[in-house]
Amino acid sequence: EVQLVESGGDLVQPGGSLRLSCAASGFTFGNYDMSWVRQAPGKGPEWVSAINSGGGSTYYADSVKGRFTISRDNAKNTLYLQMNSLKPEDTAVYYCAAASKYTNRKDDYNYWGQGTQVTVSS
Predict the structure, then answer these.
(1) Best CA proximity match to 116, nearest among 97, 83, 98, 93
(2) Is 41 exposed, middle or buried (0-12, 13-18, 19+ CB in 10 A)?
(3) Could you tell me if 22 and 5 are in contact, meaning their C-beta atoms sit under 8 angstroms apart?
(4) What share of the chain is helix, strand, coil (3-state, %, to 5)?
(5) pLDDT averaged over consecutive 10-residue blocks of the chain (122 residues)?
(6) Of 30, 68, 31, 75, nearest to 46 (Cα)?
(7) Dihedrals phi, psi of 8, to nearest 5 degrees
(8) Burial class (CB in 10 A: 0-12, 13-18, 19+), 45
(9) For residue 18, how many other CB atoms are within 10 A of its CB?
(10) Which of 16, 43, 51, 120 is the most buried (most CB within 10 A)?
(11) Exposure pattern of 78-111 as b/e (b: 16+ CB <10 Å)?
(12) Using alpha carbons only, how large is the chain's radius of gyration in Å?
């Protein structure tokens, strides 16, 4: 059974930091590009960041560039997202997802997690 289990979401003040993790199982994690996608209340999914299968190339949405860092540990089958200088507009459910496409459409992904809530508020 394929599983992507996100963790690390929390309530944090503006300017704060969080590190999200995504533990993968049931498929060959190291063969897949991975993305973080977020969905704010009342809005559609928004692609945030991606990393290629080997971890050597990373990509970011303009809205998070310079503040977020994606990484992966293929030996541990785990994806990470370090989020710094958080803003209220970063409030969303954050999902990890596996696919070679980096899009806002859930249907474009092979696998999709259950999400972890990030709330940025004072």
Answers:
(1) 93
(2) exposed
(3) yes
(4) 5, 45, 45
(5) 97 98 97 97 96 96 98 98 98 95 90 97 96
(6) 68
(7) 105, -10
(8) buried
(9) 21
(10) 51
(11) bbbbebeebeeebbbbbbbbbbeebeeeeebbeb
(12) 13
Q: Which residue has the tokens 């997202």?
A: 81
CB 39 within 8 A of CB 25: no
Q: Which residue is associated with the tokens 């541990």?
A: 76
Report how far residue 71's alpha carbon sits from residue 51's, in angstroms, rounded to the nearest whole number: 7
